[in-house]
Amino acid sequence: MVRFPTRGEKQYKFVFCAFLLVLGVFAFGLKPAIAVETSIQQMGEPAVQAVKTDFRDLDNDKQLLPSVHYLAAKGIINGFPDGTFRPADSLTRAEAAKILVLTKGLPEQSGGQPVFSDVPTGHWAFGTIQAAEKAGLLYGYEDGTSKPEEPVTRAEAIALLLRISGGTLTYKNVDIADNVTGLTPGTSYSFTIEARDAAGNLSSDGPAIEVTTTSLPDTQAPVWAIGGALLPSNITENGLTLNWFGATDNALVTGYELYKDGVQFDSVSGSTYSYTVAGLAPDTSYEFSVKALDGAGNRSSELTTTVTTAKTSDNQAPTWADGVITSSNITSNSVTLTWSGAADNVAVTGYEL
Questions:
Q1: Which residue among 39, 278, 300, 326 is buried most deeply as judged by most CB within 10 Å?
Q2: CA 130, CA 151: separation in Å to the nearest integer?
Q3: Which domains, and CATH codes, for the chain?
């Protein structure tokens, strides 16, 4: 469905009167006695019989006065008994049908079966709606209804004017838009616009455009499989290897961040599942963790492991600097032995006697 932008009541008033003005042009030369009420609610009121071109609710509206005066002078429209024109009132489909039929000088179709299920023979606009449908000026909906009380949209107004003009209207600087919904985010589409006339002829050289819809914001973080873990291997005095199974993401895992004792020290690509750590101290405990990262910057929970590096290999025995041992406090059953400490390349862990 073609949709035109709505710019408030004042814009609608302009479109409404422009609609009436064009009808007046087509009605030039028709019987001047033609008149029509402008509100369904007032259809029961006696119409103003004399042609009236001054309306007290249009005194300062320079935009509307020329159109209204022209049509009133031609006898196409008339005001209300209270001296008003009521330009802000909506124009319904039934009222539009009435104006079209009167402007074209078509006879009302008072007999026959109703064309539309919601316009029975007792409806006030039955004859004019039947006549408008027969003349090809008014079409219904797929469900067999006419929706006579619905307001005429800007798009419908243009279609009505085109039909009453015989397909010769020309429009300049008209913004036409169609809101296409149900597309997939982050997807490219090719659109082509073709024009159709009242006879059903379709153009074949309409403009085309390529459009890529925007992607939805990604707020979903990567997740680890159940039982996922960070596993150390190849532990040495100053290094080790960290291993993990890949995480999954609604879009794509783009990388993994590696942490040592809570501080990030490196990162790898999303297709790498191991990392060799070097430069560690022997016989030292470290806490390592890994987080998965996606393209939107979402981070997974961390997998953590604590590792103690291997002790340094020691094949060198302790040595004595002086090699002196002394005795004291000698009794019949005891003695105190004293010696200077030995030295070792790593550490002296004990003495054997």
A1: 300
A2: 18
A3: 8-164 (no CATH), 231-308 (2.60.40.10), 317-353 (no CATH)
β-bridge pairing 319-320 and 303-308: unpaired
**pLDDT bracket for residue 11 (50, 70, 90):** very low
Strands 342-343, 319-320: pairing kind? antiparallel
Residue 163: which of 141, 140, 137, 133 has the closest Cα?
Answer: 137
The string of pLDDT tens digits covering residues 239-295 is 999 999 999 999 899 999 999 999 999 999 999 999 999 999 999 999 999 999 999
Closest CA to 20 of 81, 107, 79: 79
Which pLDDT score is estimated for 152? 85
pLDDT tens column, 104-122: 888 888 878 888 999 999 9
What is the percentage of the chain residues whose pLDDT exceeds 90?
33
In this structure, which amino acid lies at residue 158?
Answer: I
Q: 293-303: per-residue pLDDT in tens?
A: 999 999 999 99
In this structure, the number of other CB atoms found within 10 A of the CB of residue 140 comes to 18
Asked whether 115 and 121 are in contact (CB, 8 A), the reply is: no
What's the pTM? 0.41
Residues 6 or more apart whose Cβ sits within 8 Å of residue 322: 340
* Backbone phi, psi, residue 223, to 5°: -130, 150
Note whether 151 and 90 are within 8 A (CB): yes
Which tokens in the block code for residue 4?
Answer: 């035109």
How many other CB atoms are there within 10 angstroms of residue 187's CB atom? 11
Residue 253 near residue 222 (C-beta atoms within 8 A): yes
* Residue keyed to tokens 């390592």: 288
**DSSP 8-state secondary structure symbol assigned to residue 134:** H
